[in-house]
User: What shape does this take?
Amino acid sequence: MRFKEGRPVTVEIHNDTDTPEQLHWHGQTVSTDIDGAAEEGTPYVPAHGMRRITFTPQPAGLRFCHTHNRGGANLYAGQYSGQVGPVYIEPKSEPGNYDREVFLVLKEFEPSFSQGGDMAQDFLPPAEVKELKTTGETAMKASLAKGMPHGYEVGYRYFTINGRMLGHGEPVRVKAGERVLFHILNGSATEIRSLALPGHTFKVIALDGNPVPQPAEVPVLWLGTAERISAIVEMNHPGVWVMGDLADDDRGHGMGIVVEYAGQKGKPVWTPPKPFHWNYTQFATPNGAAAEPDEVIAMTFAKQNAADHGFNLWTINDVAFSTADMTPAYHLQQGKHYRIKMRNASDDIHPIHLHRHSFEITRVAGKLTAGLMKDVVMVGGYQEVDVDFTADNPGLTLFHCHQQLHMDFGFMTLFDYV
Ligand SMILES: [Cu+2]
Assistant: This one.
């Protein structure tokens, strides 16, 4: 979907499924009536029914829309389905220093449960906090000692870009000298994705749709679930290339797309890039530090291994969110500036999302930073991240891990303010 910044739009959401649905306008500063989260009180789109909504798309940039239904143990529901798509809000003015745009949606299909996954961890700068590691490892050991198996993870059979496995869709056809602006969305329910194009670099100009203070060229992109990256690639290395995920297994099962220069022929070539740390701060204001907030909200994330019928149960400050009791845990005051200090006492990476607001990353991997506005941030295993935001869009506001299996099993909380 393509909208214009600030120009009101009416959308008719037709639900052709047998289940009441929620369509979440991820990254937009809309009201709770529009946002698409039952926890905030958005009305459902009835099964075989329609809901007509009117809102003003903002802010500009690459946004996202997706179902916000709970999946739970049902791998046909929630974001395990294909109900995921890019939303682009054209800015009122834009520099246009590129020749054309290409939208890429990364998405896996045919999920199944496994016990014991292998999430890539080492792409983030190492910044483990010893105390968090001790807490997490002690809890895990105690659970395994009681004879508990590892909690369920989700794996996939098919990996796609724009709905096609590598080699099965149309290639991205380019000409030497072109500057192609890629808008990339990780539409996965659960996975973190990487992307590289042999012989080329990505000049990252926006994260989650928001222009970055310091565009920088990188050899690899990493995207947590629901993250978006806008990056310009100068097509200066003619050939036929595989633009794909660094994980051989995932790329081998489809996570890639062919980039073909005009006049070039042959089998698409993949070469792995050199090891590289994905560090948000390289795109931030150099030596930036944010102003002190009015209030600090401290949160510790923890995992109770296999505690809910074999599923890991996730807690924020020892509370697992319950859909039976949707009492807001945090009461904010309009206009105030808040800092959320997140501490991850688990070994998983959590892509954390705040609804209806953007936040500024103010500390990551032990480093103060400023200027990066996002709506999802990956909090590394046993790491800490601070984000700041202004309470400027009143109403119930959902905060959760965007990993479907985590959010569905407790990893959520509600803010409210009037
Ligand atoms: Cu998570």
